Amino acid sequence: MQDSSVLTEATLKDALDRIGAFARDVFDVPLAVAGFLDCQRIWLSSRWGVDVDPSPPLSTFFDPAAATQQVQTIEDLRQSRFADHPLVTGGPRLRFYAGVPLELKPGFPMGNLSLAGPEPRGFGEREAVQLQRLAAMAVDALRSQRASARLEVEIRRRRLGRVDLWRQRRQLRRQNVMIDLTERMAHVGGWDLDLQTGSLFWSDEIYRISEVPIGRAITTDFALSFYPGEERGKIAAAIDRAVASLGSFDIQTPLVTANNTRRWVHIRGEAEVVGGVATRLTGVLQDITSHKASEAQLWHVANHDTLTNLPNRALFHDRLAKALQYAERHSCTVALFLVNLDRMKDINDSFGHDAGDAVLRAQALRLNEGLRASDTVARLGGDEFAVILTGFQQPHDVDQPLGRLLAALNAPVEVGGHLLICHASIGAAVFPDHERDAAALLKAADLALYRAKTGGRARAAMFSPAIRLERDHQMTILATVRSAVADGRVEPFYQPIISLKTGVIHGFEALLRWRDPTSGFQPPGSIMSVFDDPDLSLMLGDCMVERATADMGRWHAAGLPFGRVGLNVSEFEFRRTGLVTRLRQAVEAHGLKTSHLVIEVTETVLLSKDIAVAEAVLQGLRDAGITIALDDFGTGHASLSHLQQIPVDLLKVDSSFMRDIPARHDNVAIVSAVIGLADSLGLDVVAEGIETAEQLRFLRALGCPRGQGFLFQPAMPASEVPAFLDAWPRRWEALMRIAAAA
């Protein structure tokens, strides 16, 4: 017969191992330890995660005698009395600790449950409550296992001592009282089945668990009737196997009581063998309903998003795999929607993260509305959601739910009296028409989402092979440009900006060129899509600033009158913090002043941000002494109110308005209006795209102050600028003669 203390330690470790696994998943720590104090001896029942030596350094670090009555946390062990402890200075190099006592009775800790990890971290009130719940589960497991072991030993003693029953009656009565109390505390009852007569014995606790009057006659059929039909067959089969093998069985199953209460029970039984034949089955039945509820709660926390209560990424992948398996077996369709909420960053920046969280919850509810029980909505993280729709027979059957979801998500969300616009983009892919496995289907939906976002956002796109080809082409372009930046094959070319009245060179515009290894320098038109990529857009911007300021520094040192150089700023550069600081550092590093710079922004870049934020960025540039130009004026959506609100120094008339001037009257009217508007607002004007002497003569007659274009000089590398400056006066005289004759 196995010693009860050994049985208790072994079974307790099994229970604690399960709790430890939950602890590591829930709190995301690599190490969890259960320590106990037994007769002044510290022993570590379970260790999960980091493999550390259970030697005195570990034991003293998790000393149960030091346990307090509440959760104890140390955010950084290096800042505590454990700074010199071997587990902090060496071994796993622990930095974080949290512990909670394990108490069988209040005020008498017999051990503790501890968490530790190699990174400092905080430990909030909610996490403390969760750790206390885990500790309570550990104590329950300890009580249950001790009671179970004690009960099993006692039942065996009773069976072996029947011949001496009368002599031990008084002692047995006391033991029965203790057993009954133990059963009540641990929700464990004993049972005994005589295989020869079929008689079944239940202890009082099993009667209580089953909600049957204590003492009622029990038969095997009556006992099995409390289990659902399928479970009843599993229990009967387990009993038959134990009898046939002269062994034991162990099973967890739902039970429906006499009062129709649903519970979970753990049944264990062992055969008694006489003469090589099983004559009895003896065992225990434990009510584990509370343990199952705790496990379910921990599972829910580990598999659901805390903000929206939707399935998280891990559960989403599990549901998608099962949906595809079902669809494969039943020849039906699964639709996968990937949803991205647009402008969430703007909402968080403008209204705060509480408003952003409210929008996320509202959109999550909209995604859930109208879906069936077989469908899944999950939050993958941030502003990304996913929807799995099952049971369709044809791919086009998903068009209606796709359109319904898009319309619902694009409706304004009311938060705190404000109507917030948070449009959504959706990418859709269908199994098996588009892809046949989960990873490929996700990739297809992601490509469709990319198409929806690049197509203008607030729309849905269904995957097609053409989207993959387009994305592959885009990835090739991104790789080409990334390689060009890394190899130093991106550099500015310079186009002069001329005073149309005097011919004086006021400066240059730095235009991006990249050198193809086989075709030479290329204009940016072939790689314009890279400016939709934040990382590459910023890399190109930084490269242009560094190369242009280096060229300007050399010209300045050589005494060349290059004036000011204009640099175009992309939307991502404009959004990035510290723009003014980076520009100032770049010019100062090359012996220049900020007045040598002109920053050109488009109307689209300005209006992509909150106008107040755009105004603050532009004002910072102006305060630093940098000139601000509004590029491609007339092609965007800037209004007169915007020009009054934002600080701008000059307008650049887009080259599209120069076509067929002066023959095309609508373009003549637009250019004339812009020049007059700029003059009334005290702004300078640069006409782009001047290609003919007739255009030059016309613009001079209108009083346009400045211009640039192929008529004066195509964009040229920095090495050609000195020669151009030297030859320019003679070229200007020649241009004047040609314009006069035009």
Quick recap:
Residues 1-7, 39-43 and 54-58 have low confidence and may be disordered. The protein has 24 helices and 27 strands.
List the SSEs and their pairings.
Elements: H1 4-27, E1 31-38, E2 41-49, H2 56-61, E3 72-74, H3 86-89, E4 96-105, E5 108-117, H4 125-160, H5 169-186, E6 188-194, E7 200-202, H6 204-210, H7 220-224, H8 229-245, E8 248-256, E9 262-274, E10 277-287, H9 289-303, H10 313-330, E11 333-341, H11 344-351, H12 353-368, E12 376-381, E13 384-392, H13 399-409, E14 413-415, E15 418-420, E16 424-431, H14 438-454, E17 460-462, H15 465-486, E18 490-499, E19 505-516, E20 520-522, H16 534-557, E21 564-568, H17 571-575, H18 579-589, E22 597-602, H19 603-607, H20 611-623, E23 627-633, H21 640-645, E24 650-653, H22 665-681, E25 684-687, H23 693-702, E26 706-707, E27 716-717, H24 721-741
Parallel strand pairs: 16-17, 19-21, 21-22, 22-23, 23-24, 24-25, 25-26
Antiparallel strand pairs: 1-2, 1-5, 3-4, 4-5, 6-7, 6-10, 8-9, 9-10, 11-13, 11-16, 12-13, 14-15, 18-19, 18-26, 18-27, 19-20
Helix pairs in contact: 1-4, 4-5, 11-12, 15-16, 23-24
